[in-house]
């Protein structure tokens, strides 16, 4: 079994989905001859040609708007937005049309669309290239929001997203693109949307994250165990909408404590929703308040302060200690 990084796993998935279903079309800025800004679509243009791998103008609203029309017409478009901070011009298209079309047409039309976009910091880029605004899209009824944590997860989740009948926002953590390799089967496979992953079993505290932060909380759990502080359970949400609250609640009921970690701003971040769900469904099982480890309520800083802005292993370990001291 090959060991791939996330770029290679996503590229392989797109190739296989395009081979499997001729309705799958890739479009976006520089996705064709250049293979995308991170080379995620490398080789697809040579394989499938300009009719199925479409280089578009620099116009995010136009990219997503065209993809919505394609999806309604029966295609399976996969649109790339070069960085998530550039998706805002297309927000109107996603909210007013893609997310509502099934309800608006009373089920006559669906929008089987995937919008792929790298998100988050860790690559020493400017603020629009480093944002983590997934909660903005989670708040929109009708959109599914998926965030893979590693190459294996990325390939399986993307295949499910491409085959899904509804619009999916697929956030790819840019710092993970080439940072790690995992074993990835050559053959196509899917990972169900809406189902969290139990990364590590534990008994003392539940650590919850998604995307690049999953590696952070796993390392924190290993450190806590090595120091004899706690045996932490690690949960990767995978999909923020729909949110698998059952896996989270079952874990918290077992451990009695929860720490939620994300690099997005604290106020209104998805960690607040996770905390609220725990309070509503498991408050009598809690031994301490839910602790959040997050980014700050500011625009992502330039490279000099990036490490200070983002949660790290030390911050997660201290959050667990805080919970245990309560």
Question: Mind summarizing the main beta sheet?
Answer: 7 strands, mixed
Provide the domain count: 2
Per CATH, the class of the largest domain reads Alpha Beta
Secondary-structure element sequence?
EHEHEHEHHEHEHEEEEHEEHEHEHH
Taken from the alpha-carbon principal axes, the silhouette is globular
Give Rg in angstroms: 19 Å
Helix and strand composition category: alpha/beta
Give the overall pLDDT as a whole number: 96
Total beta-strand segments? 14
Strand order of the largest sheet: 3-2-4-5-7-6-12
Instruction: Supply the CATH superfamily name of the largest domain.
Output: Thiamin diphosphate (ThDP)-binding fold, Pyr/PP domains
Give the second-level CATH assignment, the architecture of the largest domain. 3-Layer(aba) Sandwich
Termini Cα gap:
46 Å
Name the helicity range: 25-40%
Unreliable spans are none
Question: What fold name stands as the CATH topology of the largest domain?
Answer: Rossmann fold
**Residue share in β-strands:** 15-25%
Number of helices: 12
Description:
The chain has 326 residues and is α/β, with parallel strands linked by helices. It folds into two domains: 2-184, Thiamin diphosphate (ThDP)-binding fold, Pyr/PP domains (Rossmann fold), CATH 3.40.50; 197-325, Rossmann fold (3-Layer(aba) Sandwich). The protein contains twelve helices and 14 strands. It has helices at residues 6-20, 44-48, 60-72, 91-98, 101-104, 134-138, 151-163, 213-226, 245-255, 270-282, 303-309, 313-325; strands at residues 2-4, 24-28, 53-55, 76-80, 114-119, 144-146, 168-173, 182-184, 197-200, 205-209, 232-236, 239-241, 258-261, 291-293. A seven-stranded mixed sheet has the order 3-2-4-5-7-6-12, sandwiched between helices. It has a five-stranded mixed sheet with strand order 9-11-10-13-14, with helices on both faces. Helix 1 packs parallel to helix 7, helix 3 (60-72) packs parallel to helix 4 (91-98) and helix 8 (213-226) crosses helix 12. The model has no long low-confidence stretch (mean pLDDT 96).
């Amino acid at each position: 079994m090959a060991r791939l990084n996330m770029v290679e796993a996503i590229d392989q998935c797109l190739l296989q989905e395009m081979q499997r279903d001729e309705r799958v079309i890739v479009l976006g800025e520089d996705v064709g001859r250049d293979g995308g800004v991170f080379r995620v679509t490398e080789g697809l243009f040579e394989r499938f040609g300009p009719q199925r791998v479409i280089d578009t103008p620099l116009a995010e609203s136009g990219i997503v708007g065209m993809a919505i029309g394609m999806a309604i017409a029966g295609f399976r478009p996969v649109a790339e937005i070069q960085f998530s901070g550039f998706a805002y011009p297309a927000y109107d298209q996603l909210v007013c049309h893609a997310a509502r079309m099934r309800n608006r047409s009373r089920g006559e039309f669906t929008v089987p669309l995937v919008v792929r976009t790298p998100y988050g910091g860790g690559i020493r880029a400017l603020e629009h290239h480093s944002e983590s605004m997934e909660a903005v899209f989670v708040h929109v009824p009708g959109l599914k929001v998926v965030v893979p944590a590693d190459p294996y997860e990325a390939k399986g989740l993307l295949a499910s997203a491409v085959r899904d009948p509804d619009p999916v926002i697929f956030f790819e953590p840019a710092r993970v693109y080439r940072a790690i390799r995992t074993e990835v089967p050559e053959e196509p496979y899917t990972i169900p949307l809406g189902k969290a992953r139990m990364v590590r079993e534990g008994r003392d505290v539940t650590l919850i994250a998604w995307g690049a932060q999953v590696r952070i909380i796993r390392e924190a759990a290993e450190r806590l165990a090595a120091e004899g502080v706690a045996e932490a359970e690690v949960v990767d949400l995978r999909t923020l909408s729909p949110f698998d609250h059952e896996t989270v609640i079952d874990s918290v009921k077992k451990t009695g404590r929860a720490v939620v970690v994300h690099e997005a701003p604290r106020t209104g971040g998805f960690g607040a929703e996770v905390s609220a769900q725990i309070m509503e469904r498991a408050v009598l099982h809690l031994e301490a308040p839910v602790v959040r480890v997050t980014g700050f309520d500011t625009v992502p800083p330039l490279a000099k302060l990036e490490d200070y802005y983002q949660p790290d292993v030390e911050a997660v370990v201290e959050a667990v200690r805080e919970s245990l001291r309560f």
